[in-house]
Amino acid sequence: MTPDRPAVVASECAAARFAPNTRAGFAYCLERGFDGIECDVHLAADGEVIVQHDYRLNPRLTRDRSGRWIDAPGEAVCRLTSRELAAFDVGRYRPDAKELATYPHYAPRDGEPIPTLRDLLALYRAHNATATLWIELKTTPYQREVSSDPTALARAVVDAVVEFGVARRTVLLAFEWDVLSIARRRCLDVELDFLTLHPRHVVALNRGAGVIDPYRLYGECDPRRFGGSVPAAVAAADGDWWGPNVGDVVADDVVEAHARGLRVNLWNVEADAASIDAALALRADAITLSDPERLAERLGRR
Known about the structure:
The protein has 11 helices and 9 strands. The chain is an alpha/beta fold. The chain has a single domain (7-301), classed as TIM Barrel. It has an 8-stranded parallel barrel with strand order 1-2-4-5-6-7-8-9, surrounded by 6 helices. Strand 7 (241-244), helix 9 (251-259) and strand 8 (263-266) form a beta-alpha-beta unit. Helix 1 packs parallel to helix 4 (117-126) and helix 5 (150-163) packs across helix 6 (177-186). The longest helix has 14 residues, at 150-163. The two termini are 20 Å apart.
């Protein structure tokens, strides 16, 4: 089951090239013909599925209607309507944003509103595209006050991809595994990618929430019930994919996942040559990174 060539997946609609999760980045990915395009979604207050990474509006990216950068902390996405969210401009980073040093090929685009999932699906249909859509359902049990309702979000996303006829080209991803189970009950055609991050990183990322149990993300399929094997837990949860942070796995983990009938999608892969080569050496089925052009070039040279 080891792949000869991993799928090239553009993280956040190629966030190294355009502001993340924007129509400009999505269109670029369609034109470049990457194997997959990943985006992150929340549910707005009016029930519309919104394409946005953070639970709150990002002050490093977001300007209001007058062009003024918003203050931190930004409002929770789930508390605003899709119309209110569309009034913000997220096409460029604030001049002092750390991302500008990280992404040398980044191209700002003024006038980029926060898109809805339906916006991107309409663009996908207009291009007669065939790329796989990797849609991450952004929910968290540690910050329910700023998180979309898991059941409502899963159902809304599934209904959208079914309506646009792309369910069989869709992979749904989530760190909160129970959300994926809800999606599977809604539609058997979508594939599921169970995301993981080392427990110590989960704790660090949620330090503002106080003492948390990092294993709460896994629901009934806690890996500790399967001898500590995450691939075994993903297989028990009826997963199609396991999506580990690239820094959390070794080659034997990928071999085990393949032996259990899973495909592996590595994320958080940096776009430099050494990081790409290290990810390729793991022999995963897909690699998700913010500058997919670099991976595509590397595979072309191979």
